[in-house]
Amino acid sequence: MFYVFHVDVNSAYLSWEAVYRLQQGDSIDLRTIPAVVGGSEADRHGIVLAKSIPAKKFGIHTGETLYGARQKCPGLVVVPPRYGLYMQCSEAMVAIMNQYAPLIQRYSIDEAFLHYQLPPSMIQGQGAEAAAVAAALRLKAQIRQELGFTVNVGIGPNKLLAKMASEFQKPDQVHTLFRHEVPEKMWPLPVQELFFVGRATARKLRGYNIFTIGQLAAADPQLIHCWLKKPGLLIWQYANGLDDSRVTDEPMPIKSIGNSSTLPFDVTDRATAHQILLALCETTAMRLRKIRRCAQVVSVTLRSSELITYRHQCRLASPTDVTSLIWQESCRLFDNVWKKEPLRHMGVHLSDLCSNEYYQLSLFHQHLEKHHQLDRTIDALRLRFGTRAVFRGCFSHSSIQPLMGGVLQDQEVDYPMMASYL
């Protein structure tokens, strides 16, 4: 007998920032005041990444501009993100979860599923449900006591119902959504609150007079399929609490990898654009080699100062993980697609990945093996001594960072682990 727990950190980035700052001697808890974690406005990354509950009461929502957030709350406190800290907090939470079950599936940096196996002597029924709730309460309390931040824990017979349960009242709560509770707890909810139902789908369903999850569950599945095709059958099953996916610790196969960056200034010349592409390719290719993959498709994404976005891609003659080759192809794509307008955002993405255990030699790249060895040596040096230990000479006197589009430098900081300040 088992249950699935869904553990979700309350206002993750904001909570992690708050606890870390309290540990460093700050007197104000960011969670108790209107505060947000936001990007750098000077670097034109000025959007809300996470918000406190008091900030939410002002109508501030994740993804809006910091300018808009300040219009709603003039006294808003804005703090910059520290992704390295957040990764460490996430790892610490998963380490505690591993004390309760060996099978953990990380859903995102602040969410994870846990397969909680009841003792063999425990029979199905209220006793089993009570035991699962007791375990979830212990888990929640241990995270709060040892790490200082709060989580919601949803309990259900499958991943769907556990995730739906964790979205009930917040923060610092344990909620259940057992099968016999679905009609009472889930069916009265608006249909847009069902997992996998987005705004467009909800709008279509309302057009067919389906406003609640219960109405969707009671609808004819053939009609839902007719209206929404294959995804319609999936959300109909979800509305009925059906989900046969298992908690698994196997990582999802990576189908593509990429890095992009909103630039602190408008790019108006080809040479600067090529240098930025090089910095993006350095980061992307290093990540590609880390997962032992080669790419067969390279794409370049550009966004103008007028916020017009376009993308161009091509298939390589043979798969590669060599930084210089990926950069050369990215520059060629850029030259073909750039319309000479000022650019505020650039990105490089790699797809159609395959193993890098074997690769095809090319008559046009006679020194390919030397490039492979050079890239791997640079990767090893950066891993040991930091991402700025080795970089290309063209970045020596440049305002452009030698690696762009990632959070690598912040991850090098060793943040002391937090303790409870609640």
From TrEMBL:
<dbReference type="Pfam" id="PF00817">
    <property type="entry name" value="IMS"/>
</dbReference>
<protein>
    <recommendedName>
        <fullName>DNA polymerase IV</fullName>
        <ecNumber>2.7.7.7</ecNumber>
    </recommendedName>
</protein>
<dbReference type="Pfam" id="PF11799">
    <property type="entry name" value="IMS_C"/>
</dbReference>
<feature type="binding site">
    <location>
        <position position="8"/>
    </location>
    <ligand>
        <name>Mg(2+)</name>
    </ligand>
</feature>
<keyword id="KW-0479">Metal-binding</keyword>
<dbReference type="GO" id="GO:0003684">
    <property type="term" value="F:damaged DNA binding"/>
</dbReference>
<comment type="function">
    <text>Poorly processive, error-prone DNA polymerase involved in untargeted mutagenesis. Copies undamaged DNA at stalled replication forks, which arise in vivo from mismatched or misaligned primer ends. These misaligned primers can be extended by PolIV. Exhibits no 3'-5' exonuclease (proofreading) activity. May be involved in translesional synthesis, in conjunction with the beta clamp from PolIII.</text>
</comment>
<comment type="similarity">
    <text>Belongs to the DNA polymerase type-Y family.</text>
</comment>
<dbReference type="InterPro" id="IPR043502">
    <property type="entry name" value="DNA/RNA_pol_sf"/>
</dbReference>
<dbReference type="GO" id="GO:0006261">
    <property type="term" value="P:DNA-templated DNA replication"/>
</dbReference>
<dbReference type="InterPro" id="IPR024728">
    <property type="entry name" value="PolY_HhH_motif"/>
</dbReference>
<feature type="domain" description="UmuC">
    <location>
        <begin position="4"/>
        <end position="198"/>
    </location>
</feature>
<keyword id="KW-0548">Nucleotidyltransferase</keyword>
<comment type="subunit">
    <text>Monomer.</text>
</comment>
<feature type="active site">
    <location>
        <position position="111"/>
    </location>
</feature>
<dbReference type="InterPro" id="IPR001126">
    <property type="entry name" value="UmuC"/>
</dbReference>
<dbReference type="GO" id="GO:0005829">
    <property type="term" value="C:cytosol"/>
</dbReference>
<dbReference type="GO" id="GO:0003887">
    <property type="term" value="F:DNA-directed DNA polymerase activity"/>
</dbReference>
<dbReference type="Pfam" id="PF11798">
    <property type="entry name" value="IMS_HHH"/>
</dbReference>
<dbReference type="GO" id="GO:0042276">
    <property type="term" value="P:error-prone translesion synthesis"/>
</dbReference>
<keyword id="KW-0238">DNA-binding</keyword>
<keyword id="KW-0515">Mutator protein</keyword>
<keyword id="KW-0808">Transferase</keyword>
<dbReference type="InterPro" id="IPR017961">
    <property type="entry name" value="DNA_pol_Y-fam_little_finger"/>
</dbReference>
<keyword id="KW-0239">DNA-directed DNA polymerase</keyword>
<feature type="binding site">
    <location>
        <position position="110"/>
    </location>
    <ligand>
        <name>Mg(2+)</name>
    </ligand>
</feature>
<dbReference type="GO" id="GO:0006281">
    <property type="term" value="P:DNA repair"/>
</dbReference>
<dbReference type="GO" id="GO:0009432">
    <property type="term" value="P:SOS response"/>
</dbReference>
<dbReference type="InterPro" id="IPR050116">
    <property type="entry name" value="DNA_polymerase-Y"/>
</dbReference>
<keyword id="KW-0460">Magnesium</keyword>
<dbReference type="InterPro" id="IPR036775">
    <property type="entry name" value="DNA_pol_Y-fam_lit_finger_sf"/>
</dbReference>
<keyword id="KW-0227">DNA damage</keyword>
<keyword id="KW-0235">DNA replication</keyword>
<keyword id="KW-0963">Cytoplasm</keyword>
<dbReference type="InterPro" id="IPR043128">
    <property type="entry name" value="Rev_trsase/Diguanyl_cyclase"/>
</dbReference>
<feature type="site" description="Substrate discrimination">
    <location>
        <position position="13"/>
    </location>
</feature>
<keyword id="KW-0234">DNA repair</keyword>
<dbReference type="InterPro" id="IPR022880">
    <property type="entry name" value="DNApol_IV"/>
</dbReference>
<dbReference type="GO" id="GO:0000287">
    <property type="term" value="F:magnesium ion binding"/>
</dbReference>
